[in-house]
Amino acid sequence: MELVIIGAGGHSKVIQDMIHCVSDLCEIRAILDDKYDVLSSVHGIYEGPIASANYLHSVNSNLKFVIAIGNNRIRRLLAKKLGLPDDAYISLIHPTAVVSPSARIGSGTVVMPNAVINADAIIGRHAIINTGAIVEHDNAIGDYVHVAPHATLTGSVTAEEGSMIGAGATVIPGRTIGEWAIIGAGASVINNISPQSTAVGTPAVIIKTASNEAETEASKSA
């Protein structure tokens, strides 16, 4: 299978290493990033701006793509801007990850080394389940979510679209992390977290929301 990697930063490096681990199954055909001005071939691999993705897809519909960018909002922006069909994206799972046969993983999602995804978990599109993260049974993980290294989502947790679960954080069973919320590294979440808020600490406490950010900006400009 020939792959196109979108992004050439640190997260992309990890994904490239994952692909090299399964080089008998996958081959990197192109790396796209806006640091490149034009599409050109370097040692048999194309390098070019992100907009080249549509051209490459048009000339070879068998190519598979992965957006290798850690920022959740940028992943969503690029997925929507490029407009490639879902089946153009591949889900990448590292050989050391443990994934239940009953789990479902959306297109474009990446599961990093030593991650665990247990029974009946549902992972959305373009998500990141990072190194050593644990997604327990019956979790519902939305599109563009990032579960950072060694975070643990216990049973029946919901992480809505775009949420970020920081490194080493723990979410107890049955809790919901609202869309585009951020859970700080090492936090222990024992309550539901509202959308577009930031929660830190043990137990996790909301320290910022989209509404109070707007109020702060308004008071500064008053």
What's the topology here?
Blueprint: E1 2-6, H1 10-21, E2 27-32, E3 40-42, E4 45-48, H2 52-59, E5 64-67, H3 72-82, E6 92-93, E7 98-99, E8 104-105, E9 110-111, E10 116-117, E11 122-123, E12 128-129, E13 134-135, E14 140-141, E15 146-147, E16 152-153, E17 158-159, E18 164-165, E19 170-171, E20 176-177, E21 182-183, E22 188-189, E23 197-200, E24 205-209, H4 210-221
Domain PglD N-terminal: 3-82
Protein name: Acetyltransferase
Active site: 137 (proton acceptor)
Report on the structure:
19% of the residues lie in helices and 29% in strands. The protein has 222 residues and is α/β, with parallel strands linked by helices. The chain has two domains: 2-88, Rossmann fold; 92-208, Hexapeptide repeat proteins (UDP N-Acetylglucosamine Acyltransferase, domain 1, 3 Solenoid), CATH 2.160.10. Strands 6-9-12-15-18-21-23-24 form an eight-stranded mixed β-sheet. The relative contact order is 0.09.
